[in-house]
């Protein structure tokens, strides 16, 4: 049975679970960052040059990432094209 | 074959030196000839924690630079027969450590010692990289707190990529999580990350949980590795951890708060 005191206790947000959630997100992000191969920044730069020949894009309109699963790697390329 | 164990964390002040002293002493108490090396060049403290600060004549850097022999620099513990300390230099900085120099000292130590415990400095710079580079096993000291957990994950990444075992494609470093300064009461109140939370995030095997304990300060005041305080909770928790490191199975202790009386529960304390 919940007591009078438990009521006040449970009203407080459980800060430990907030901590866990935040950690899970940031740690997953940082792990994926450090698994990226060294050549990625150079590849990104060269791709940007090629794309610029055809459309007006800036450095931060393009993002590139490699995702490794068990038996294949996927190169993910995101380009935001300017509005017409 | 000597086993090289690095005690590391990324973050400072989480209990690396306390743990290095306890684990080194614990291994020696089991009859294994053990040396604990202080890699915190410029900020040596292991000597104080192990009560040999007044016996330091030569240090690790002197041996690296051939200014002293290993036997001149090694300090034999006065309490435990098979325990030795190799102190850090207080006057140089971490650039005095070279990979070749460290390797030379480790090779020589490996001729006579069974365990070489490396007390890492904080950070992810040269000193910490040197301490972990040659390791066979790593004890990742972590507090149940966001920045410590994040930094531990960072160090685990470095163990995976920048150690000798990683660079030469050998079997990876055996990793152990040592959760220290654990306060079961605050965990029960939802104010502190619990063992399972930290394990879920870091995903390496758990070596032990050391409770937040008054015994640690009392012992460091006197230069006694806390594992020698066999009545204390932290001492017993380290004792369990050393047993697990040696392959024994021990149930985890000190994971729940001692039961409090009615008034303490009502009004705190
Ligand atoms: N289990 C514990 N309970 C209470 N205090 C602790 C515990 N472990 C470490 N400490 C304290 O935390 C501080 C930092 O410990 P230390 O071992 O020097 O950390 P590091 O080597 O990682 O910087 C010291 O004051 C030490 O007494
Ligand atoms: Mg230290």
Description:
- The complex is a heterodimer of chains A (84) and B (269).
- Helix content of chain A is 49%, strand content 17%.
- Chain A is an alpha+beta fold and 84 residues long.
- Chain A has a single domain, classed as Cell Cycle, Chain A (2-Layer Sandwich), CATH 3.30.1070.10.
- Chain A is extended, with a radius of gyration of 22 Å.
- The relative contact order of chain A is 0.10.
- Chain B has 269 residues and is of the alpha/beta class.
- Chain B contains 13 helices and eight strands.
- Chain B has helices spanning 16-29, 46-49, 60-64, 70-73, 99-112, 126-133, 146-162, 164-167, 184-188, 195-202, 214-222, 233-245, 262-267, and strands spanning 3-8, 34-38, 75-76, 83-86, 115-119, 137-142, 174-182, 206-211.
- Chain B has an eight-stranded mixed β-sheet with strand order 3-4-2-5-1-6-7-8, sandwiched between helices.
- Chain B is globular and about 65 Å long.
- The A-B interface holds A 5, 9, 12, 14-17, 19-20, 22-24, 26-27, 30-31, 34 and B 145-146, 149-150, 153-154, 157, 161, 187, 189-194, 197, 200-201, 266.
- The structure holds adenosine-5'-diphosphate (ADP) and magnesium ion.
- Residues 16-17, 40, 45 of chain B line the site of magnesium ion.
- Magnesium ion binds next to helix 1 of chain B.
């Amino acid at each position: 049975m919940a007591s009078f005191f438990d009521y006040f206790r449970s009203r407080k947000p459980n800060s430990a679970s907030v901590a866990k959630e935040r950690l899970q997100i940031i740690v997953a992000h940082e792990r994926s960052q450090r698994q990226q191969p060294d050549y990625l920044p150079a590849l990104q730069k060269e791709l940007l040059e090629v794309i610029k020949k055809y459309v007006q894009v800036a450095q931060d309109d393009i993002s590139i990432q490699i995702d490794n699963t068990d038996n294949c790697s996927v190169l993910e390329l995101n380009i935001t094209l300017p509005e017409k | 074959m000597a086993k090289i164990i690095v005690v590391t964390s990324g973050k400072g002040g989480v209990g690396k030196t306390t743990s290095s002293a306890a684990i080194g002493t614990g291994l020696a108490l089991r009859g294994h000839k053990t040396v604990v090396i202080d890699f915190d060049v410029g900020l040596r403290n292991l000597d104080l924690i192990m009560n040999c600060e007044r016996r330091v004549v030569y240090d690790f850097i002197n041996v690296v630079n051939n200014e002293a022999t290993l036997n001149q620099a090694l300090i034999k513990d006065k309490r435990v027969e098979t325990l030795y300390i190799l102190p850090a230099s207080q006057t140089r900085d971490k650039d005095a450590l070279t990979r070749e120099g460290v390797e030379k000292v480790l090779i020589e130590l490996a001729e006579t010692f069974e365990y070489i415990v490396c007390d890492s400095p904080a950070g992810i710079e040269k000193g910490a990289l040197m301490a972990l580079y040659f390791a066979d096993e790593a004890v990742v000291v972590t507090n149940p707190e966001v920045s410590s957990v994040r930094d531990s994950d960072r160090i685990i990444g470095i163990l995976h990529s920048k150690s000798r075992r990683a660079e030469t494609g050998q079997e990876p470093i055996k990793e152990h999580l040592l959760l220290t300064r654990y306060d079961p009461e605050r965990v029960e109140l939802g104010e502190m990350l619990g063992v399972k939370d930290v394990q879920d995030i870091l995903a390496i095997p758990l070596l032990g949980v050391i409770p937040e304990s008054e015994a640690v300060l009392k012992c460091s005041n006197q230069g006694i590795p806390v594992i020698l305080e066999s009545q204390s909770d932290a001492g017993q928790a380290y004792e369990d951890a050393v047993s697990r490191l040696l392959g024994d199975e021990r149930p985890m202790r000190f994971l729940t708060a001692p039961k409090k009386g009615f008034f303490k529960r009502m009004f705190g304390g």
